[in-house]
């Protein structure tokens, strides 16, 4: 197995927490803090010190246009750029991170089929990519499920169902959003097979950088390592280690996994043997390998950790009824932050004249809200589907 970590997207660091994509809704925003983000890349969801799901795919990636409420699709984004993504999970939030990687040798488990649907009418949107109206013939089709097409291609994620629905039972018809992750575009008559979304729970215990290596001549080495400033790591005798080798530059840094599952043979601090390195920034570690170099990164982990879902993520807050700025009466608009009576009157008049607003940001700009006031609207308002009179084009029904 050869895995290369190509990038990291951290949520909560972007200028905007989310953006609205017409017909799709809110996409969470993150910042590329390592390497590059590439549309279609495989990803793991990292929540705190745990990996809670693997084999996600970046199906949609957009960025916000400068000095505008509009968004545009992008195929890749570099170091420190803000991006907004759809990967098949709706619960991405501040503090989460997507670890992007390539690995041609290993794929998801497709041994258990969960549902099958026939593609009735495929389509394509320049902003959100491929979609298809499907008819479920067997089982159930869920939002976020792994899926494959009968004509081949890599496994992908169901990014969304129209409605938005969370699942589609047998006999039902709906629109499925697949985005730009399709290696083989859907065609009428294709079969979309769905599989359960596997959770790959792993405990991460931190990293340390190798500064020097002493070869013991017995097939093992002792390495002097240091935990990066501002971070924490716990290495324990017997624990598992991955060796990551950095390649590229600061602006396009990647890490190739050289080895995995190496047990820690020994630990020492200040020349004294210890069982654990918790709380130490500098120590030595013994590993059963000779392929170790200066600047390699050692990643301590515990595979297959099982934990109740309540530990992995806090219970969701009670849902807040969103005010649709394209259909809500004036009384409801007046409950939104920053909506004074004159602004409510302006909103109703503009809505009457132009038929509605493409998204919440455009609504805020049109009625004269300041940027900080528009930010306060997120989580309180939404913009439903409208027919724009100047084009006659309707938003994607998904």
What does this structure look like?
The protein has 398 residues and is mainly beta. It has five helices and 28 strands. The chain has helices at 309-312, 330-333, 341-354, 360-366, 371-377, and strands spanning 3-11, 18-21, 25-35, 37-38, 42-47, 50-57, 60-64, 71-73, 76-77, 82-86, 96-102, 115-125, 129-142, 146-149, 152-157, 160-161, 167-169, 173-179, 191-195, 202-215, 221-226, 240-247, 254-269, 272-274, 282-287, 297-303, 323-324, 381-382. A hairpin with a 5-residue loop joins strand 20 (202-215) and strand 21 (221-226). The protein is globular and about 80 Å long.
Structural class: mainly beta
Helix percent reads: under 10%
Number of strands: 28
Shape category? globular
Global Rg: 24 Å
Instruction: Output mean pLDDT.
Output: 86
User: Roughly how many Å apart are the termini?
Assistant: 38 Å
Described by strand count, sense and barrel closure, the largest sheet is: 16 strands, antiparallel
DSSP summary: helix tally: 5
Beta-strand proportion: 35-45%
Low-confidence stretches: 306-318, 390-398
In short, what is this structure?
This protein is mostly beta strands and 398 residues long. It has helices at 309-312, 330-333, 341-354, 360-366, 371-377; strands spanning 3-11, 18-21, 25-35, 37-38, 42-47, 50-57, 60-64, 71-73, 76-77, 82-86, 96-102, 115-125, 129-142, 146-149, 152-157, 160-161, 167-169, 173-179, 191-195, 202-215, 221-226, 240-247, 254-269, 272-274, 282-287, 297-303, 323-324, 381-382.
């Amino acid at each position: 197995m050869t895995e290369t970590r190509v990038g990291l997207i951290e949520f909560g660091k972007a200028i905007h927490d989310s953006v609205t994509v017409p017909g799709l809704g809110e996409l969470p925003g993150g910042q590329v803090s390592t390497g590059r983000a590439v549309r279609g890349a495989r990803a793991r969801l990292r929540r705190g010190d745990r990996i809670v799901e693997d084999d996600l795919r970046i199906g949609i990636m957009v960025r916000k246009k400068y000095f505008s409420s509009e968004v545009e699709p992008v195929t890749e984004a570099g170091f420190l750029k803000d991006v907004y993504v759809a990967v098949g999970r709706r619960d991405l939030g501040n503090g989460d991170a997507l670890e992007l990687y390539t690995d041609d040798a290993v794929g998801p488990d497709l041994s258990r089929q969960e549902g099958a649907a026939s593609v009735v009418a495929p389509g394509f949107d320049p902003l959100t990519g491929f979609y298809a109206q499907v008819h479920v013939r067997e089982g159930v089709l869920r939002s976020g499920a792994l899926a494959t097409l009968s004509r081949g291609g890599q496994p992908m994620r169901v990014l969304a169902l129209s409605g938005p629905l969370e699942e589609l039972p047998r006999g039902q018809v709906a629109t499925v959003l697949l985005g730009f992750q399709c290696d083989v575009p859907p065609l009428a008559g294709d079969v979309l097979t769905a599989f359960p979304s596997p959770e790959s729970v792993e405990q991460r215990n931190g990293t340390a950088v190798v500064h020097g290596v002493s070869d013991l001549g017995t097939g093992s080495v002792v390495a002097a390592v240091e935990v990066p400033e501002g971070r924490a790591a716990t290495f324990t005798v017997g624990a598992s280690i991955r060796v990551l080798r950095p390649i590229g530059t600061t602006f396009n840094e990647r890490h190739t996994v050289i080895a995995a599952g190496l047990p820690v043979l020994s630990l020492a601090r200040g020349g004294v043997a210890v069982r654990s390195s918790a709380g130490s920034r500098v120590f030595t570690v013994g590993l059963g390998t000779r392929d170790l170099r200066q600047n390699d990164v050692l990643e301590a982990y515990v595979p297959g950790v099982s934990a109740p879902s309540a530990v992995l993520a806090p219970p969701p807050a009670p849902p807040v009824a969103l005010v649709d700025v394209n259909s809500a009466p004036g009384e409801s608009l007046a409950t939104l932050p920053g909506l004074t009576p004159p602004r409510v009157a302006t909103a109703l008049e503009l809505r009457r004249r132009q038929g509605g607003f493409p998204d919440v940001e455009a609504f805020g700009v049109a009625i004269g809200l300041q940027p900080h006031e528009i930010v306060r609207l997120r989580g309180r308002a939404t913009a439903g589907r409208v027919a724009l009179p100047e084009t006659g084009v309707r938003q994607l029904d998904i």
